[in-house]
Amino acid sequence: MKRLLFFLMIFLALLTAILIPSGFFTSPFTGILATKTKELLANQYYIDSFFIHVYIGGIALGVGWLNFVNSIRVKYLQFHRIIGRIYVLTFLITAITSVVVSYHAYGGIVSQFGFIFIGLIAIFTTLMGFAAIVNGNLKSHQVWMRYSYASCLASVTLRIWSPILGLIMEDELLIYQIVAWLSWVPNLLFVRFYLNRK
Q1: What helix, strand, coil percent values describe the chain, rounded to 5?
Q2: Per-residue pLDDT tens digits for 64-115
Q3: 194 Cβ contact partners less than 8 Å away, ≥ 6 residues apart
Q4: Where are the domains of the chain?
């Protein structure tokens, strides 16, 4: 069961990492951007932050899971270090730009705070994980990086919860406000539960 869940996570992470950036690449101003005002779309700072978030985030999501494959970590330590550095750099960029983008999130202050919080948590957990391994604290590094990637997976769980909630309620604004929190809070609680069981 544990192995099946891990493979499901990899599949969904790769699917999201490929489909979301490629979707915006082929049709840049569709999806969530179609709900934005002309004034916001004319703001180059916002647009640059949004697309950096989407494209760099795809890299972080696509490579992050490799750091949790034991055989890679044990047999190919140097590869693990390289992938780890790529993940830390790309996810920090993703998290920082997410805070910028979240200020203009659909759904008002409820959604904005939800997405800003996960952006800040992502920055904090990733920096703590990196600092831990730099200081030689392997156990702390593993704990923090689990929380970091759980934060990264919010982009996956957001796209799972949205259609599920859409089946049971019609208010799109309320759905988005709920998903702004539901996309990441259960992820972090799951890591907490997993670590407590270990």
Answers
A1: 85, 0, 15
A2: 999 999 888 889 999 999 999 999 999 999 999 999 999 999 989 999 999 9
A3: 146
A4: 2-19+28-197
Which structure tokens are listed for 48?
A: 């640059």
Cβ neighbours for 143, distance < 8 A, ≥ 6 positions apart: 129, 195
Up-side HSE of residue 151: CA atoms within 13 Å toward CB? 31
How far, in Å, are 99, 137, 167 from residue 177 at the CA level?
16, 38, 16
Give me the residue label for tokens 């929190």: 181
Tokens encoding 121: 């948590």
DSSP class of 135: T
CA 174 to CA 159: how far, in whole Å? 15
Consecutive H or E run containing 43: none
Q: Which of 87, 71, 78 is nearest to 17 (CA)?
A: 87
Average pLDDT (136-144) is 96
List Cβ neighbours of 38 (8 Å cut-off, separation of 6 or more): none
Given a cut of 90, is residue 155 above it in pLDDT? yes
* Element of type H or E holding 30: none
> How far is residue 99's CA from residue 121's CA, in Å, rounded to a whole number?
10
Cα Rg of the chain (Å, integer): 17
Task: Enter the tokens of residue 186.
Answer: 């259960």
For residues 114 and 123, give the distance between their C-alpha atoms in angstroms, rounded to a whole number. 15
